[in-house]
Amino acid sequence: MMLPTMATLRATRFLPSISVFNNLFHTSTTNLKMIKGTGEVVIPEGWTAKNKMVYPPQELGEERRPAWVCHMRGQIRYSPKKMYYVAILVRGLTVDEALKQLSFLPDKGAAIAKEVIEEAQEMAVRDHNVEYKSNLWVADSFCSKGHIFKGLRRHSRARWGEIRYNYMHYYVKLQEGLPPKHYCDTYQRDGNEKLEEFLKNHRQKFIQKTP
């Protein structure tokens, strides 16, 4: 009969049971909201549900409302912190210019964003009556944190470390027409323009419980 070595006793002494790991992982409030009862990860559908909005008919002489489409891709194996820089790069650009800029980036996130924008471009022509697929601009582009899976990594001296597998969701909105001249409002306005904007904002106020 072989006697256990000192290393085996030390590892057995400090090694938690599997049930302890199962109780500690995937039990936060955010993670539980993202997991169905079947164990599948829930992908948010509120962004794509905006495509089902129905507007009332426009009045005669009213400016035509531009078409737009919302699209997303969920649970992408990529860091949301890295994807943030790719997402803000294409905001306010035309579709052709956004695809051109993304094609020169060597990042994985750029390839993901390019595919999602191309899918949204096809959806706009196929489902939302956009005549020319080049007559679109990126009205919004952002990402959010997805479900994070946790794992274990074995270290020396019978120790264990936690591994986090980050996932994220990428959202994009394309709108028909040309992009605005100043998307990020970086234009330096003079006093008269600031006064006009101030008065315009105050005239558009709505006071509740008034006739």
Give your account of this protein's structure.
The structure is a single chain. It is built from 7 helices and 5 strands. It has a domain at 45-50 and 65-180: Ribosomal Protein L22, Chain A (Alpha-Beta Complex). It has 211 residues and is of the alpha+beta class.
What does the secondary structure layout of this molecule look like, with pairings?
Layout: H1 6-14, H2 18-24, H3 29-34, E1 68-76, H4 80-89, H5 95-103, H6 108-127, E2 136-145, E3 149-155, E4 159-165, E5 168-176, H7 191-203
Antiparallel strand pairs: 1-5, 2-5, 3-4
Helix pairs in contact: 5-6
Estimated radius of gyration: 26 Å
CATH fold category name of the domain at 45-50 and 65-180: Ribosomal Protein L22, Chain A
What order do the strands of the largest sheet run in, or round the barrel if closed?
Answer: 1-5-2
| CATH C-level label of the domain at 45-50 and 65-180 | Alpha Beta
CATH architecture designation of the domain at 45-50 and 65-180: Alpha-Beta Complex
By secondary-structure content and strand pairing, the structural class works out as alpha+beta
Give the SSE order as H and E letters: HHHEHHHEEEEH
| Bulk shape | elongated
Précis, in short:
This is Large ribosomal subunit protein uL22m. Keywords: Ribonucleoprotein, Ribosomal protein. This protein is an alpha+beta fold and 211 residues long.
Short descriptors:
alpha+beta, Ribosomal Protein L22, Chain A, three-stranded antiparallel beta sheet, 7 helices, elongated
